[in-house]
Amino acid sequence: MPELPIDDEQAPLYTLGQVADMLRVQQAFLRRLDQHDVISPQRSPGGQRRYSRRDILVVRHVTRMADEGMTLVAIRRILELEDELKRLQEELREARRRLEETNGPAA
């Protein structure tokens, strides 16, 4: 059976209004996140913002940080650093895997 869009966490399925209602935030807040490059949802053919489940999780994370008083500039930087940390952790896992293949399991 082919994968459905609902199964894809990256599928842009939700409108700005739906996300605002789900997360109990103002639509203007979501627009501001996009304007400040904190989160950039995909666009429909008509130019409307469309959010994926992954985007919604990020917006929820951002909302918590904003509620704690962080600025959008600071939040954007934190998200960048979190992404970099994930990438570096994956590189480290891959390097350890390759080293183990070369040298055998560590004692």
Automatic annotation (TrEMBL):
Residues 71-105 form a coiled coil. It holds the Pfam family MerR_1. Keywords: Coiled coil, DNA-binding. Residues 13-81 form the HTH merR-type domain. The lineage of its organism: Bacteria, Bacillati, Actinomycetota, Actinomycetes, Streptosporangiales. This is MerR family transcriptional regulator. The keyword Coiled coil applies. InterPro entries: DNA-bd_dom_put_sf, MerR-type_HTH_dom, MerR_fam. Gene3D superfamilies: 1.10.1660.10.
